[in-house]
Amino acid sequence: MEILKLNVDARDFSGKGSARQARMGGSIPGILYGGGKDPASLSINLREFDTLVHGKGGEHAVVELQCEDSNVQGPALVKAVQHHPVRDTIMHADFQRINLDEAIKTVVPIVLVGRAAGQVEGGVVDHTLREIEVECKALEVPDKIEVDITALNIGDRLHLSDLTIPESVTLLTELSRTVATVHQPRVVEEAVTEEEGVEGEEGSAEGEEGADGTTPAGDSESSDS
Q: Per DSSP, which regions of 23-144 are E strands?
């Protein structure tokens, strides 16, 4: 994985409304921790960070923090990105200090490649596992794991144990997990539903006839007398 540069500022957001003011100014607050140092509050340019996480780096990118504060500057891993629940804009970011010579734990996206044979027959691909957890040195983290699904037929399952993982990477996710399946499309049997509706209407009509079109036996005897 390529290490990407990210310019940040060390800033205290403890004041009331300071984080909101930063967002109004085009920045987002962040936190940097780990590495045997005290946590540091950060101010990050939203546009620059948004470009980074939606580009090659992703939301678990390895970055080189550029800052005048020596307590902040250095390699770090993006650990978490908080989004607005409605607008989906980035609101906050967590970073963890790392040593490029030591193994780290992170997640890597799984990307399906190709068109499954079962899709040609009308099947549907269900991509159930989209990320895996791995452990390796920061610069050896794969940008993504690509999986060729062209041989999958309807009813086939692709498990994590079927994937090819680089030798330098230790896989932490269970090998038994299903990555993707190809299944028949779920079709609603409209004929059955319509038949049930007709039966319901007939039953209702019979009930109404019994209630309105039939003279009770007691009333008939009274009228004859």
A: 27-33, 40-45, 62-66, 74-83, 90-97, 103-113, 124-127, 131-137
Q: Which ranges in the chain are annotated with CATH 2.40.240.10?
A: 1-98
Place of tokens 């090819």: 164
pLDDT tens track for 63-74: 999 998 888 999
CA–centroid distance for 188 within its chain: 28
Rounded Cα distance, 124 and 180, in Å: 10
Q: What is the pTM of this model?
A: 0.71
pLDDT digits (tens, 9 = 90+) for 117-153: 999 999 999 999 999 999 999 989 998 999 999 999 9
Strand order in the sheet with 178-183: 124-127, 178-183, 157-159
